[in-house]
Amino acid sequence: MIQILIQGLLLSGLYALIAVGFTLIFSVGRILNLAYGAYLMLGGYMYFWISQSMGMPKLFGVVMALALGVALGILKYQLIVKTLRGDHVAVEISTLILAVVLQAGVVLVFGDSSKILLPIIPGVVYIAGVPVTYNILAATLASWVILGGLYLFIKNTHTGRAMQAVSMDTKGAAISGIVPDHINMITWAISGGLGALGGVFFASYTQLAPSMWVAPLIISVAVVIVGGIGSIIGTLIVAHIVGFMEVSVVSLLSPELRGVFTMLLIILVLVMRPQGLFGREEL
Amino acid sequence: MKLVKGMGVGLLSALMATTALAEIKVGFIGSLSSDTGLSTLRGAEMAIEELNAQGGVMGEKITLVTADTGEDVTEGVKAYEYLAETEEVDFIISGSIDDVSLGWLPRMQEFQIPTLDTWTSYIGIIDMVIEDPDTMAPYFMNIASDEALATLYINFGADVLKAKMGWDSVVVLAEDTAFGGAITGLVTDALAPVAGIEVKDVITYDVNTVDFGPIFSKAQASGADFIYQVSSVNSQVMSSQYVKLQVPMAMTGVNVSALGMEYWEDTGGAGGGISTLSPVPSVGFELDPVSAKFVEDYQAKYTSRPSIPHFNGFNAYHGLKQAMAAAAEAGGFKDVKAWNAAMLKQDLKLEKDGKLWLRYGFWQHGEVEPVTGRTYPQNARFDLSAPYDDAQPSMVVIQWKEDGTVGVVYPFEYANTEFELPSWIKK
Amino acid sequence: MGLRWYHFAAWGAFILGLMALPELVSKGTLRTIIFANYLAIFAISWDLLSGRTGYISFGHPFLIGIGAYTSAILTKRFGFDVELAIPIAVVVTMLGGLVVLLPALRIKGSYFALVTLAFMELMYQLVQVIRPDLTGGTRGMSGIQTLTRGAVNGFYLSSVLMVIVAIAAWLLMRTRLGTALTAVGLNESAVEGSGLSTTKLKMVAFLASAFVAGLGGAFYVHYLGSIAPRALFDINFVFTIIVAVLIGGASTIIGPIIGAFFLTFLLEYLRPWLPGAERYFIYGGIALLLYMYQPKGIYYMLQSGWARLKGSTS
Asked: B422: distance to nearest CA of chain A, Å?
């Protein structure tokens, strides 16, 4: 039981880190960024290249991955979102195509074999008899810190409140003097950075492979559907629901049903409460 | 005028010469971005170069065209069609993985182009050869089938795990794929009666599992002595987490990603202690002189990864030469039945220190293998019983050490190192 | 329906052109055309639902896969006749899709897209876990009965299928029903306001789309002779179908066909120049640029080009 608690907590932390960037874009811009998984992929590969291939210090690798994510987010916003000017469908499709192109690009540069990242922090510690790598501990702590920081940022800073305003009503926000364009750009930048960071942790936990952008996307999708649009807190809570459910299914039932149950949860929520558990948006 | 005429005649004869210079076209089907595909491609390239240097086959030069599958099943079908209908190749050498091969197999049956599969090891395809020898006549698989791999593993269980390590119970951790299910079935059916090892539990996991912590906890809870891993997809995730979590249980089994030299580099050194079965010749395998020369030439020619060809590269190298020899005997590739008969007779025995070390040959139709009691027509020859003087064993068990070296631990006739427990397991 | 002589002439010319092709092009090209035909069928199926009504489905392979697997399992495992298996597969696709996706139609926009994606992933998981002895599990199945042998026969079968589907869809869209469906895509609340039941309309679009998807999927699997979950329930497949429709021109019939042919030929013709992974990169890049330049598609580009030509000469 303790074991499920601990392992669930840790996995949920990782999932929260992964999903928050995706929900941010969806909440503020109402856009499905299907290339979100690509931030993770590229962040992971950048970290691999800097820290493992070139042997530079790990922190530098993380910073570079973060920078790449932010740059990519801004680029995407400027080149795709603004060009297609609010045609949501077109943006979603473009992001899908972009993700596939990026995957092909990664195969070109790195080949298609899977790579294992060295843990950011090596070593294992036993908590209540359960083996826990420092790596996932770091990921969970990082996710709490980041989410907490993000929450404070959104609630307490001017920019953050502007983001909330844009997410609720773009026109109204514009009238009150906020420049939606700037806010959107900042949101995309943050989303990209978070994605890249999540990618570094995700890849250091599982593996690095060109097709790795799909699984985190599905996880993020699950969190968005189950949680609904709206709060950061909602994302955190839902990530825990999904994480605990997975660990419970694996430990108590049968590990092969792991994916099936996640999907069923999505369907259940959709049938019973389509706007999600914490959604404040009517559909 | 004479000059012009002379030039005209010269041009004309040059033209006629090039059109008269027929060639044998070989098509490569596989992924051009994976170590597996590249191993087969380069093995084939080297074989073709050597044959051409000796004058070609039947007086004709051999050319090679490639069709990339990207390890995608649909692309595989398109690639095969491209080779057959656009390039009109005479022979196809495949470095495809199992499900891609299954994808283009119906096309091979339709076009009847002699095809050599160097990596795919699915026993179901050999079953198809038995059931329908006529349409499957062009197909040869020169790697021991996965069922033969698993069968010899049972002996490893008995000779090393039980006899040397003193283990008598196991928990199977298998991926929920067809491969996982097949190997698990073989192991659970035979491990207990033959090796005297009890199967305490079988845990099947989803290939997209992110966190193996709970799964390893379950394995420990079973109370077994060791873990038998069956992973072909994303196998590095489980094995690297095994190392990172320092799971206090020994683990061995089938880990497809550990089969190449790049494993150490790819895992950033987190691969120590992992052992897996591997087709022959594996990494860390001592080579006979002929194969050693092949590796030397390979490394002189290719500077990008893989640094040493995977076993399928050797298969491609020897297999392509055999396919050409068979064609020479059958008068070409067109008469599939004749080529099939000639190919079945191909038999390359490589010796090391006076002993039979490797054998590239094929099982005949109706020839029964004594241990499993079944036939493997058009499948690579292997030997399942010591002292392996009929052919090489269907597989060897290799183990990666924590310092990055790798060696063969079983069978003893081929072993160059001992099976050890990882350093974090105090037993 | 407002059918005029030039409609018949255009379709007639198109059909005649197709029939004459085997004489004019190589077998390799015919094979590429066969794949393009099937992609066109899937693209038309997607367009009937998502192009018309604006409900973007990211899980269309889910429907195609049901059709393909049903027919494959019935013929290979249970020895059904193909003539029986295919119609059953189509019905199963429509039912399965109905049971599962209809509740999802209550949800709008991006949520719908996410749900369909989730369903496709679910099918991918299920097909490997549930009764792998029937479905062939992760490896899939080989040796499924093929309906034709050879490039030319495959070409004729797929072309006939594609033309029938195209004409049927085209006719459907010219009925009042079709107009109503297009209206839903343009402004759903207006349609509701006019007294029509958008739910019923969406259901019709959905059933039509499922019918075509199931039909296409069943014939496709009998052309390939093999099936694998990785080939069908794959996000790359989603990508190919959607891009084919959008690059060709959504909400038309010719658009998806143009897009399917353009994409399939682009990928195949790049092969001799860029043998390896560069191919997919360039192919994806071209698709992205093309789409961003003109999200309305090639058909729109052709139409406006034609209009400009006419305008400039008059």
From this structure: 15
What CATH number is associated with residue B138?
A: 3.40.50.2300
Nearest CB partner across the interface for C281, out of A84, A94, A104: A104
How close is the nearest chain B Cα to the Cα of C218, in Å? 15
**Does any domain span residue B16?**
yes
For chain A, say whether B87 makes contact (Cβ under 8 Å).
no
Q: Chain B residue closest to C137 (CA)? A: B178
CA geometry: angle A44, A45, A48, nearest 5 deg? 90
Can you give the pLDDT at residue C313? 57
Question: Would the CB atoms of C226 and B102 count as touching at under 8 Å?
Answer: yes
Same domain, yes or no: B179 and B309:
no
Do A89 and C103 lie within an 8 Å CB cutoff?
Answer: no
- Nearest chain B residue to A130 by CA distance is B217
pLDDT in tens, B109-130: 999 999 999 999 888 899 999 9
| Mean of pLDDT values over B227-249 | 85
The domain spanning residue A68 has which CATH number? Answer: 1.10.3470
* Same domain, residue pair B70 and B192: no
pLDDT digits (tens, 9 = 90+) for B147-169: 888 888 888 888 888 888 888 88
ipTM associated with this complex: 0.86
Which of B70, B213, B244 is the closest to A119 by Cβ? B244
Distance from CA of B421 to the nearest CA of C (A): 33
Residues of chain B contacting A122 with CB distance shorter than 8 Å: 244
Range of the domain at A213: 2-272
CA-CA distance, A105 to A95, in Å (whole number)? 15
Query: What is the pLDDT at residue B14?
Result: 47
Query: A174: helix, coil or strand?
Result: helix
Question: Do B201 and B254 fall into the same domain?
Answer: yes
pLDDT tens by residue, B329-348: 998 899 999 999 999 999 99
Tokens of A21: 């960037």
Q: Which domain holds residue C168?
A: 21-234
C89-111 tens-digit pLDDT? 999 999 988 876 666 666 666 67
Q: Is the pLDDT of residue B408 over 80?
A: yes
Overall average pLDDT of the C181-205 stretch: 77
Whether the CB-CB separation of B171 and B224 falls below 8 Å is answered with: yes
Q: Does B331 touch chain A (CB under 8 A)?
A: no
Task: Return the C-alpha torsion angle B213, B218, B223, B227, nearest 10.
Answer: -60
Asked if residue B321 belongs to a domain, the reply is yes
Say yes or no for a CB contact (<8 Å) between C277 and B70: yes
Residue scoring higher pLDDT (A180 or B309) = B309
Does residue B136 sit in the same domain as residue B36? Answer: yes
Taking only the tens place, the pLDDT of each residue in C31-78 is 889 999 999 999 999 988 888 777 788 878 889 999 999 999 998 888
Residue A280 within any structural domain of the chain: no
All residues at 6 or more sequence positions from B182 whose CB lies less than 8 Å from its CB, including other chains: B123, B146, B147, B150
C-alpha B72/C-alpha C231 separation (Å) is 7
Closest residue in chain B to residue C146, using alpha carbons only? B106
Residue B71 touches partner C, C-beta closer than 8 Å: no
Nearest to B64 by CA among B264, B272, B324: B324
CA nearest to B30 within chain C: C276
- Residue B359 placed within a domain: no
Instruction: Test C231 with B74 for CB contact under 8 angstroms.
Output: yes
Residues with Cβ within 8 Å of residue B112, at least 6 apart in sequence: B135, B137, B138, B336
Q: Is A108 in contact with C278 (CB distance < 8 Å)?
A: yes
Q: Is the CB of B179 less than 8 angstroms away from the CB of C139?
A: yes
Looking at the 3D structure of chain B, how many domains does it have?
Answer: 2
Answer whether C53's CB lies under 8 Å from C205's CB.
Answer: yes
Please indicate, yes or no, if residue C28 is contained in any of the structural domains: yes
Whether C132 and chain A come into contact, CB under 8 Å, resolves to: no
Domain count, chain C: 1
Between CA A197 and CA A21 the distance in angstroms is: 10
Position B141 scores a pLDDT of 94
Domain containing residue B304: 2-144+289-348
How much is the mean pLDDT over chain A? Answer: 80
In chain A, which residue's Cα lies nearest the Cα of C276? A108
Read off the pLDDT of each residue in A119-137 and give the average, rounded to a whole number.
Answer: 79
Q: Do B33 and A111 touch (CB under 8 A)?
A: yes
